Amino acid sequence: MDAWVEQSAREIAQHAERELDALVGVSTPSGDVVGAEEAVAMCVAFAPTEATPERLPCSTAGHADDLVLHLDGTGRKRLLLLGHLDTVVANDSHRPMERAGDRLVGSGTVDMKGGVVLAIGVLRALAARPDAFGEVSLLLVNDEEWRRGALSHATRFGDVDACLCFEAGQLTPAGAEAVVVKRKAAGTLHVRATGRASHSGSAPDRGRNALLALARAAQVVAEQHDPKGADLLSAVPTIMNAGEAFNVVPPSGELFCDLRAETLEAFDRVLDALPQEVAGATLHGDLIRQWPGMDAREPTRDLLDQATQLLGRTIEGAERGGASDASHMAAHVPLTVDGLGPRGGSAHNPDEYVLRESLHSRAQVALAVVAALASDNRPGG
After folding, report:
1. How far is CA 306 from CA 22, 161, 283, 375, in A?
2. How sure is the predictor about 158, in pLDDT bands with cuts at 50, 70 and 90?
3. pLDDT in tens, 169-212
4. Residue 232's Cα: distance from chain center in Å?
5. What are phi and psi of 258, to 5 degrees?
6. Among 108, 241, 327, 367, which residue has the fewest nearby CB atoms (within 10 Å)?
């Protein structure tokens, strides 16, 4: 293993668990400005003293400003490290970090505060080697989990040489280290139903049942599910709300569906399949959230080969179905690598966890990729 990678990973691992404990101790559901500000302050405190903090308006109105940590060097290449501080866990369901054997369990551990502490650790390692890069920026956003539109900072950082995102890491089925170089496009379909209220006991047939219309819409969406088809489309109804009282025909309601596919265009056929009317109740569908896909397999092939040599064990490019801000950046920066965070599981679940050992091993992976990017002026030898 490259000497700089080995030593720097050891130093990152010495701090990572304590920093993760502190960061997970702060509840940061998307849109909670107070929690976000506390998490931002922690990240600034964990950052190297050489880094200059800057706040940028969040892509989503009403959220706390995003954080950028800038580090200037004397080399040539410009690098963006990327992550998010928000979670899907509400304040009343927040779980501080607990140690359970080899697992560090808590809200946001793997998605993605574990990745945040590794990214900050990489920033500290680079602060000690200013000849490795011309500029490094760590962008931490506060709205990744619930943002509907584009990442507003993508164009600002679109001219960097490479983007490294620290979402959760993984292993290949054969046990090799994997990073994410391909992601599906993601969409959220919102269906509104408009019917007519009527007493469900004395005049049920005078009503137009919005709930039944939404149930039919959910079935239609599910019928489009074709994960083995040409578009690898998954179409999953996830939330349905309708009705105002137990004895009234529901006059209105809404349905949300999660869509994933190779391209955004595949979502159009789901939208087109929706009926306009069901038993007198009308339906209207909108794609309220569309995130692009990512395919950096070819641009990153040589980079991962070089990183493998520096790491001393194989790093392979992998695919993942979940969405990430790396997808927004990959549209501007061909050399985008995701999945550089620690390994774990149960994201968006009360038992979410990070594997303690992976804070060290995945720091090695991230540093090997960083060192490969700086191979013309590589730190250590």
Report:
1. 34, 16, 53, 8
2. very high
3. 999 999 999 999 999 999 999 999 999 999 999 999 999 999 99
4. 20
5. -100, 130
6. 241
